[in-house]
Amino acid sequence: MAGNKLDIKQKVKIKNRKASHEYEFIEKFVAGVSLKGSEIKSIRMQKVSLADAFCVFIGDELIIRSMHIAPYEMGGFNNHIAKADRKLLLNRKELTKLDKKVKENGYTIIPTQLFINDRGLAKIEVALCRGKKLFDKRNDLKNKDQSRELSRIKM
């Protein structure tokens, strides 16, 4: 039983690949997530999508929207809603810092990855970011291709 738990913790690491292409990360934070029992079970089975997810402030709380957690297969009638809003848990100091930056023009908060820490708790890494322009995206792809070619030549 204990061996199984360790394996699950190490395997769960869901990334938002689209985010690094669309946004320039300025600062990253690790936040806890307020979840129901069936939600954490689905996360452990890696049935989560962060592709369209984003964070907003409602009052003084940070909420993640559009994060899809598939309903738990064995959940029955007590199952959760797949795209429900979920509260992110951060320190007050971090929340005020993020709130000030988001109120400035051009900044947003995007989840970059979801993982389970060593204590078995689900955590989300969120990034304060700014949208990239088209020429920035092209430049990043060009640099990535050049580094790939250099690594092939060195081998």
Task: Please give a handful of descriptors for the protein shown.
single chain; 155 residues; alpha+beta; Small Protein B, Chain: A; 7-stranded antiparallel sheet; two-stranded antiparallel ribbon; 9 strands; 34% strand; RNA binding; SsrA-binding protein; SsrA-bd_prot_CS
How would you describe this protein?
By secondary structure, the chain is an alpha+beta fold. The chain has one domain (about 1-155): Small protein B (Small Protein B, Chain: A, Beta Barrel). The protein has five helices and nine strands; from the N terminus they run αβαβαβββββαββα. The protein has helices at about 1-10, 15-20, 35-45, 90-105, 135-155; strands at about 15, 25-35, 50, 55-60, 60-65, 70, 85-90, 105-115, 120-130. The chain has a seven-stranded antiparallel β-sheet with strand order 1-8-9-2-7-5-4. Strands 3-6 form a two-stranded antiparallel ribbon. Strand 8 and strand 9 form a beta hairpin. It is globular, with a radius of gyration of 18 Å. It starts with a helix and ends with a helix. About 20% of the residues are buried. The model has no long low-confidence stretch (mean pLDDT about 90). This is SsrA-binding protein. It is found in: Cytoplasm. Its main location: cytoplasm.
